[in-house]
Amino acid sequence: MAISDVNKLSIYNGALLFLGDRELATLADTVESRRLLDGVWDRDGIDTVLEQGQWNFAMRSAKYEYSPSITPSFGYSRAFEKPSDFVRVCAVCSDEFFTNPLLRYTDEAGYWFSDLDEIYVKIVSNDGSYGTDFSLWPPSFKKYVYSWFGSEIIWKLTQSTSKEEKKKAESRKLLTAARSKDAFNDPTKFLPPGRFRMARGSGYGRRHDGGHRSRLLG
After folding, report:
1. I need a surface site. Which of 66, 144, 146, 194 has the fewest CB within 10 A?
2. Distance CA 144, CA 140 (A)
3. In DSSP terms, which residues pair with 122 in a beta bridge?
4. How does pLDDT run across 5-36, given as a tens digit for each residue?
5. How far apart are CA 148 and CA 33, in angstroms?
6. Can you give the pTM of this predicted structure?
7. Domain with 74 in it
8. What is the sign, positive or negative, of the torsion defined by CA atoms of 24, 29, 35, 38?
9. Distance between CA atoms of residues 112 and 93, nearest Å
């Protein structure tokens, strides 16, 4: 991962500030809170928070061609190896514009399986140019990350179930807020026209009025 020690210290201190605990001077401070945060970090802490949403800043799109060295024994005929920076899938489509979702595929054991020779996939990535580029993290996501790291260690610091429940609830609210703000960055989506309108010849790209204005008398 590309998160620097300076950024890692910021995450740790953000977590401790969330808990109202003393901040660290360095990552080498010999205190219980730092040891506990190290444990959360080492247990895929960053991948865990990235996995909680389809974050625009962490999303990577790519075309994948099937692996000719892998022949499925049954079912779909093509296997596509997941990339090393994979955290979660956001979309699997048959076209480069991601307008045709691929419905006939499976996701198993580090591979996608399909009958196509190539597929287009959007993933949440932990690559240093995407999900682990700290400079790309929006403030709302940072607040969620701090809160999640903090809520993971509060019980061991305080032995208080009530404090743990309170902080976990606060963290869930921050996650909801981060997801909502991130969703504002999505492109505007338009609903497709209904069957009745399509039947009257008012499909995409046409300027028909559905037969109303043309009936008006001059």
Report:
1. 194
2. 6
3. 61, 91
4. 999 999 999 999 999 999 999 999 999 999 99
5. 14
6. 0.83
7. 57-125
8. positive
9. 12
